[in-house]
Design brief:
Elements: H1 2-10, H2 27-34, E1 38-39, E2 46-47, H3 69-79, H4 92-100, H5 111-114, E3 151-153, E4 161-163, H6 164-167
Antiparallel strand pairs: 1-2, 3-4
């Protein structure tokens, strides 16, 4: 299976209209979606739920596995090696199926990871007192280390903080 997957990554087969592979969709799935309108799991617009070139189907999600070919191709080009099924998070079966039916998956980082300063907000540290009533004479954003105006962040998430004096925290164990 691993060798087969490696070969499929490096081999791009080309088919004429007569010999191209068609997806085999289970009759149960076809009956289930024939009663309702299927939607593309990426753009959420209506889609024709039948085995055809313009609507690839992901077997990992049964009736919710239909896509517009253009939508899934744009997602693959954007996601690169992080390309996976959005609802079930299936990567292996989804990539194998999509590449077998002509979706090109580039071996690259996702486009959102290549933007300058893409994760800059992760370096931001909260820097103001979130007490209901901040009593610091210089204001909520004033911080002075080793005084009662030292800012102590939430020990679980760090998303909020409080001055030691505003929270009446103990010097020996300033947890908030």
């Amino acid at each position: 299976m691993l060798l087969q997957r490696l070969i499929s990554v490096f081999v791009f087969r080309s088919y004429c209209a007569k010999h191209r592979p068609l997806q085999e969709i289970s009759p149960d799935v076809l009956m289930e979606v024939s009663d309702t309108t299927a939607t593309c799991a990426i753009c959420c617009e209506d889609i024709d739920p039948r085995p055809c070139l313009s609507t690839p189907w992901a077997p990992c999600c049964k009736k919710d596995g239909y896509f517009h070919r253009d939508c899934v191709q744009k997602l693959a080009l954007s996601a690169g090696y992080l390309f996976r099924r959005l609802l079930c998070n299936n990567k292996t079966e989804f990539q194998d199926t999509m590449s077998h039916f002509g979706i090109f998956i580039p071996n690259q980082n996702a486009s959102w990871e290549l933007e300058p300063d893409a994760f800059g907000e992760l370096l931001h540290q909260h820097n103001s007192c979130d007490a209901n009533r901040c009593v610091c004479p210089q204001g909520c954003s004033h911080v002075m280390v080793r005084t009662r105006w030292e800012l102590v962040l939430c020990r679980y998430c760090g998303a909020q903080g409080i001055h030691m004096g505003c929270g009446k925290l103990k010097w020996s164990n300033p947890e908030w």
